[in-house]
């Protein structure tokens, strides 16, 4: 038997940046995200007890499966023992470049494993399990908008759908680099925790989380963008003000894109920047403004890779 799951990436409009429990991947703040249609991971698992350990093929290439094996052992502790697995995963998103490839990857893996075991678990339980592999994976089970509750322990930290109304929201994805980032997300979070501003960021994020839910339920794209941009930029400020090994994901091209977005905003367009752990910029806008934003960015940066993403679906199975 084989089982296949397809999960889409999500981009957090209220960020997850910092853990209060490393082992359980419990975040310091709750977060809110939009699932994207353009970027996804499709994963097939096969039980193969002839293998001495779990094996991972990524885009048809055998790769180091240490992190995946450790996660599968967590699932074995949670779900009961199951034999070694052969995993074939296809990533339709740049890996480790701040475009949430780990979110879709661990969501798809969790879904495929649970299906292969013949278990029937609700999506909130699946999200809690996937959180142990990648925090943001908890949100990739849900289409459109999702919230991840920070919780206080393993059972209370999970994601669920926000059940928001449909809206003409789009993300212009400006891919500055598809290269693996120099500072991984886990290390970046640990450094950010040393910023003297971290406590204020947590407090502000809690209020922004509440305000963002109201904006999403009202389908107010301008308010969504305004809150998301403020949350993201203040998150990246933490990296610069860390007392232990300060750093930035910004490049010169990143900064040029942010300036163009700011100029477009002053011209009256809906254009708001958000960024995750990497140099790539996502621009929140109305679908009717997306092509003009792409045209403007292309004129200024002809070699920039640009795509328009819209609201994506729930996890699916084959």
TrEMBL record:
Membrane spanning stretches: none
GO biological process: isopentenyl diphosphate biosynthetic process, mevalonate pathway
Coiled coil: none
E.C. number(s) listed in UniProt: 4.1.1.33
UniProt enzyme class: lyase
Domain Diphosphomevalonate decarboxylase-like N-terminal: 7-159
InterPro entries, per database record: GHMP_kinase_C_sf, Mev_decarb, Mev_diP_decarb, MVD-like_N, Mvd1_C, Ribosomal_Su5_D2-typ_SF, Ribsml_uS5_D2-typ_fold_subgr
Keywords carried by this UniProt record: ATP-binding, Lipid biosynthesis, Lipid metabolism, Lyase, Nucleotide-binding
Pfam families registered for this protein in UniProt: MDD_C, MVD-like_N
Domain Mvd1 C-terminal: 172-303
A GO cellular-component term linked to this record: cytosol
One MF annotation (Gene Ontology) recorded for this entry: ATP binding
PANTHER family assigned: DIPHOSPHOMEVALONATE DECARBOXYLASE
NCBIfam families: mevDPdecarb
Entry's family note: Belongs to the diphosphomevalonate decarboxylase family.
Protein name per its UniProtKB record: diphosphomevalonate decarboxylase
């Amino acid at each position: 038997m084989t089982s296949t799951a397809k999960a889409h990436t999500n981009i957090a409009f209220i960020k997850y940046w910092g853990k209060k429990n490393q082992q359980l991947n419990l975040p310091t703040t709750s977060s809110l995200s939009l699932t994207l249609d353009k970027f996804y991971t499709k994963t097939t698992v096969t039980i193969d007890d002839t293998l001495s350990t779990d094996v991972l093929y990524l885009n048809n290439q055998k790769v180091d499966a240490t992190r995946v094996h450790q996660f599968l052992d967590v699932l074995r502790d949670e779900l009961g023992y199951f034999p070694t697995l052969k995993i074939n995963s296809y990533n339709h998103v740049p890996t480790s470049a701040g475009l949430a490839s780990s979110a879709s990857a661990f969501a798809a893996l969790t879904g495929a494993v649970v299906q292969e075991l013949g278990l029937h678990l609700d999506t909130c339980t699946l999200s809690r399990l996937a959180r142990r592999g990648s925090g943001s994976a908890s949100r990739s089970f849900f289409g459109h908008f999702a919230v991840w509750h920070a919780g206080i322990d393993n059972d209370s930290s999970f994601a669920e759908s926000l059940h928001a109304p449909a809206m003409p929201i789009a993300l212009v994805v400006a891919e500055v680099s598809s290269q693996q980032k120099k500072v991984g997300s886990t290390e970046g979070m640990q450094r950010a925790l040393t910023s003297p501003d971290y406590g204020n960021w947590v407090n502000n994020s809690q209020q922004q989380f509440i305000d963002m839910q109201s904006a999403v339920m009202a389908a107010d794209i301008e308010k969504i963008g305004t809150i998301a941009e403020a949350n993201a930029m203040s998150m990246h400020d933490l990296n610069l003000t860390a007392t232990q090994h300060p750093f930035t994901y910004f490049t010169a091209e990143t900064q040029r894109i942010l300036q163009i977005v700011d100029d477009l905003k002053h011209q009256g367009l809906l254009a708001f920047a958000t960024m995750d752990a990497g140099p790539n910029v996502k621009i929140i806008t109305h679908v009717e403004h997306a092509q003009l934003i792409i045209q403007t960015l292309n004129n200024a940066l002809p070699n920039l890779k640009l795509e328009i993403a819209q609201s994506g679906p729930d996890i699916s199975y084959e």
